[in-house]
């Protein structure tokens, strides 16, 4: 009993108890608020942001509580904190850089949750941004195209100061994509162009209007040219075939699906041309061969040598 009384007589112990009780109460209240609001909000993006805001507010309240309770003691320890803080800053420079990166991400519009980005050579969708790390659901690697491979990657926020940040969906949630269609020499290239233009407009036509609206905002925000949004077909001829390139705008998450639809429809349309348009493949055609002179001499009889 005397030991407890001595502890309670120490003002620092009492302050620690007050801080502990305060942190417990704040944590309980923040958890109740987060769970209650999450049940009421149906939108997953808004629900995620609400949980994040409640978490940051609770941390701020806890920090304010600690400063308020230990206000007198902190004044006496200012010099000590300065010396210790310098050592901590040197030892935790990567952590501090990550915190600075988080501030830049939050205020500089590098990216937000839901964006598809490439950080440090890793591409994926941003599923969480914490003060120290950005969490990605990785795309690609051993999986072709822009599909998830199942790996969750955590990258230090300090990367935004060290390497370029590629954002596939920031201000313009579309990307330009292309497919190449080789056609045999001798095919009806005019019909081939007509078929390709028809198919690409049919498959990707729904993206033209929203992409134009988004690009119009881009031209007002940035010094950038008014690029062509409508799909188009270009042609070059080489030694092997006629090479048509089909260029179009597509949702950044739909590249694989749209390519499948395009090639399927192109093959269906080419089947109806009765051979007027045929796809090309790598072939080797022997145009001419040098003449070979072969002289055959009769076999000798008996012991006579051959002529």
List the helices and strands and how they pair.
Blueprint lengths: L1 H8 L1 H30 L3 H26 L1 H6 L1 H14 L1 H16 L7 E4 L2 E8 L3 E7 L8 E9 L2 H4 L3 E2 L6 E10 L5 H16 L3 H14 L10 E6 L4 E10 L3 H17 L36
Antiparallel strand pairs: 1-2, 1-5, 2-3, 3-4, 6-8, 7-8
List keywords for this structure.
3 domains, 5-stranded antiparallel sheet, Alpha-Beta Plaits, SH3 type barrels, 3-stranded antiparallel sheet, 307 residues, alpha+beta, elongated, 10 helices
Written description of the protein model:
This protein is α+β, with helices and mostly antiparallel strands. It has three domains: 7-79; 97-167, Roll (SH3 type barrels); 174-271, Alpha-Beta Plaits (2-Layer Sandwich). The chain has ten helices and eight strands. The strands form two sheets. The chain has a five-stranded antiparallel β-sheet. α2 packs antiparallel against α3 (44-69) and α8 (189-204) packs antiparallel against α10. It starts with a helix and ends in a 36-residue tail after the last helix. The model has no long low-confidence stretch (mean pLDDT 81).
In a few lines, what is going on in this structure?
The protein has helices at 2-9, 11-40, 44-69, 71-76, 78-91, 93-108, 159-162, 189-204, 208-221, 255-271, and strands at residues 116-119, 122-129, 133-139, 148-156, 166-167, 174-183, 232-237, 242-251. With 307 residues, it is an alpha+beta fold.
